[in-house]
Design goal:
- It contains five helices and no strands.
- The longest helix has 51 residues.
- The model has no long low-confidence stretch (mean pLDDT 91).
- With 167 residues, the protein is mainly α.
Length: 167
């Protein structure tokens, strides 16, 4: 046995651990991206349902205009304006649902039921996205991740303000 054998083993272990940590961090970033893609798809669907509700008999003309505006704003919002637009759509949908007491048509009932189901899915997707972001932040804060720049050029994952909002 060589006297350098323990040193070589230590260096190999450090190399393996850094490679393992970089791979784990990459998987966490991928998880954040996929959870956001899922959440974004659900939010886009919610905006589409809001437009359908605005065109149905549930809403009066003023509510329909407000809801349509909020839905289009949520669909087309930039990165910076996304939280405000989603919270605006949530508020508009909440006002409409509260004011629509007597929903009689089967299409309108289906739209409200679909919106209710979608809201539950959005809440779950928000929880998954927030959890993925927080785990990624936790790993990125480790000193060896920062020293060896294992995150590479990956942007810091973010959560939106509307994710803390109750839908």
């Amino acid at each position: 046995m060589s006297k350098y054998f323990p040193l070589i083993l230590f260096i190999l272990f450090i190399g393996w651990y850094l490679s393992y940590s970089a791979t784990r961090l990459d998987r966490l970033h991928h998880r954040v991206e996929t959870s956001w893609a899922n959440l974004d798809g659900l939010l886009q669907r919610r905006a589409a349902i809001a437009i359908e509700i605005a065109r149905s008999d549930i809403s009066d003309p003023a509510s329909a205009m407000l809801l349509t505006f909020a839905a289009h704003q949520a669909r087309d919002a930039s990165f910076r304006d996304r939280s405000q637009a989603e919270m605006g759509l949530t508020g508009a949908l909440g006002i409409l649902i509260e004011s629509a007491d007597d929903i009689s048509g089967p299409i309108e009932k289906d739209l409200i039921l679909e919106l209710t189901d979608l809201t539950a899915k959005i809440k779950m997707a928000i929880a998954m996205h927030v959890e993925a972001v927080s785990r990624t932040h936790m790993v990125r804060k480790k000193w060896f991740i920062r020293v060896f720049r294992l995150a590479g050029n990956a942007p810091e994952p973010v959560t939106y303000e509307f994710e803390g909002d109750v839908l």
